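A further point concerns the way the authors explain their paired sequence and structure data. Nothing conveys this as quickly as seeing an actual entry. An entry of this sort, consisting of the sequence and the corresponding backbone structure tokens, reads as follows:
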Amino acid sequence: MRWLLTIAAMPLVATAAAPLQCDIGPVTKVFGAVPWLVYSCNDATSLVVISAADSPASPFYFTFSLEGGSYRLRGEGTGSKTATDAALKDLEARSASDIQALRRETIASTVKKP
């Protein structure tokens, strides 16, 4: 699954900075009635939301990136349009504080791992 994280981070790569690494987590969440894996990135603000392997939304991912003081949501993949549209609707409803809370959850899940 780590190779997918590298691919998923590509749209978030800064021009002169090191590539964005999104491997903090995951936590499993349900968006649009299907399971998703949420990872935080090493830039302290971005998230990657990847469809679970057995999900009808797979393969698909969303990214939240902080741009100009607000979060921008992007998505890409070829999973079921019905499943990904439902997840998109759920994710679009998330506030900045909701996104930051997801980041804290991913960090906490990583800290608990042996």
Remarks:
- The mean pLDDT is 87.
- The two ends are 19 Å apart (CA to CA).
- The chain has one domain: 2-107.
